[in-house]
Amino acid sequence: MKAQSYRDLIVWQKAMDLAVEVHPIAVSFPRHEMFALTSQINRAATSIPSNIAEGQGRRTTGEFIHFLGIAKGSLNELETQVTLALRYDYIPDAVHDRILDNTNEVGRLLNGLLDALERRQANH
């Protein structure tokens, strides 16, 4: 069954939850990080659901796959930035681990959607 809207996609919903989760954490970083790590984390987290939405709105499966690939790249960026925040002692281990659990869930959902779309594309 084809999703009528990107809002119907569980992966988009989970990516939105992830972005909402990391925002208050990122803005709690030291003030000198406002235009560095704080900004990068918020941009990466926002990019994930944004690219899912943009891709779902495109005309072809190939375009959707392309934008999901961009979302995966942003997810990897976010994981890296959150790990840097841990290493800089901006967040505790428990926060880091919780965020990575959520990024892993979004990653599994992205991979599942990509696999389904690639199979559909191969069959046409």
CATH architecture assignment:
Up-down Bundle
Strand content: under 5%
Low-pLDDT residue spans: none
Under CATH, the homologous superfamily reads 23S rRNA-intervening sequence
CATH class: Mainly Alpha
Mean pLDDT: 96
Q: How many E-type strands?
A: 0
Major beta sheet summary? none
CATH fold group: de novo design (two linked rop proteins)
H and E string: HHHH
Shape: elongated
Number of domains: 1
Content-based structural category: mainly alpha
Q: Can you offer a commentary on this structure?
A:
The chain is mainly α and 124 residues long. The chain has a single domain (6-122), classed as 23S rRNA-intervening sequence (de novo design (two linked rop proteins)), CATH 1.20.1440.60. Helices cover 76% and strands 0% of the residues. The chain contains 4 helices and no strands. It has helices at residues 10-26, 37-56, 61-87, 93-122. α1 packs antiparallel against α2 (37-56) and α2 (37-56) packs antiparallel against α3 (61-87). The chain is elongated. The model has no long low-confidence stretch (mean pLDDT 96).
